[in-house]
Amino acid sequence: MKKIIYSLLFFFFIGNSVAQQTPAEKQSTDYSIEGATAHLGNGQIIENSLIMFSNGKIVFTGSANVKIARRGTVIDAKGKHVYPGFIAANASLGLVEIDAVKASVDEDEIGVNNPHIRSLIAYNAESKIVESMRPNGVLMAQITPRGGTISGTSSIVQLDAWNWEDAAIKVDDAIHMEWPSSFKSGRWWLGEDPALKPDKNYSKNVSNIKTYFINAKNYLAGSHEKKHLPYQATEGLFNNSQKLFIHVNGQREITDAITLSKELGIGKIVIVHGAEADKIADLLVKNNIPVILDRPHRNPNSEDDAYDYTYTIAKVLTDKGVLVSLGMEGQMERMNTRNLPFYAGTFAAHGLDKEVALQLLTSNTAKILGIDDFVGTLEVGKDATLFISEGDALDMRTNILTNAFIQGRKISLETHQTKLWKRYSKKYKTK
């Protein structure tokens, strides 16, 4: 009986993971998108625009009024909008397919300190969850491991590929670390008081992190007679070829994380989550440290926060000069990643300029991830990773994609969900 159940689960998993749309072939036809309102992703807008791309690269961005020969296939986009492809930072796409099937869960590795664990090689490019991102304009993602104190190494992929090798656009971009909290809640299921109280082990936990990195630094400076893969994997943090993404909340915790990083000689860090980062914005600006915020559709972490704290923090940090992006972590994070444009729209509805909110998913994210030299904006020389929407892409009512391109390749917007919608939308039609 057990064998039958396992076999059914296996075929269910396989059937839900290999039916992805065939990735588009390399661009062979030039394209010209004419007449759309172009949102360049850097705060600029071009009405009645003309965007042309060839061999996967943008070769012209400007006004459609300019007298210039159109290249290849001309797409009439009058009344529509064109955007750079959105980038999902701090996402675990492709690492988990079905939560209830353990064999499809590969986001968390055994152990506490795993800087050598590479999320990229576990990335499932044929995930049905991954393909469901594209119809909302999410075309790239930073694939991030979870768990432990040092979770592992992330990589950045484009979301239309046969395998992880084809998907990768930046390999091993950063190491991710979970910073301890100075408070903890009691285990209510054991009868303990669930209220938050100071964690007396906080200083010890921070000291353990410090000791680990000092040991890694000493190893790198030594003879390497015995290979230590975890320590060896931290080399990029000390020569500034990699960034350290510190997942941390709280004013004290963020300050401690910055102080320790400077003490250790880790030059490039990024704050992820960043609750209370607004209280130390000057410190962040002084040290050129960006913040990747969580989605705004959640309750504030502290009961002392304003009711709309999570909706306004993006504007507060931006106004203070902090480089801000929007990431995805937490409950139902993989399925909710497709909603990133609408989370940015929520920030816009609470004071952030609409084009600045757009930058949370485009140029700002590209800068933080170190890929702004080839993606993030609709500028000449950059990858033709972009999409056309019938309306405002940050509004769920009007984010309706008609075309999408990754590196100039016209990709399919068909997914398992669109197939089901088409199938069942016909079921109850009257004759």
Question: If you had to describe this structure to a student in words, what would you say it looks like?
Answer:
- By secondary structure, this protein is α/β, with parallel strands linked by helices.
- Helices cover 27% and strands 23% of the residues.
- The chain folds into two domains: 22-84 and 377-413, Urease, subunit C, domain 1; 86-375, Metal-dependent hydrolases (TIM Barrel), CATH 3.20.20.140.
- It has 14 helices and 20 strands.
- The chain has an eight-stranded mixed beta sheet, sandwiched between helices. A six-stranded mixed beta sheet has the order 3-2-7-18-19-20, with no helix packed on it. It has a four-stranded mixed beta sheet with strand order 5-4-1-6, with no helix packed on it.
- Helix 9 (309-319) crosses helix 11.
- The longest helix has 20 residues, at 202-221.
- The protein is globular.
- Residues 1-18 have low confidence and may be disordered.
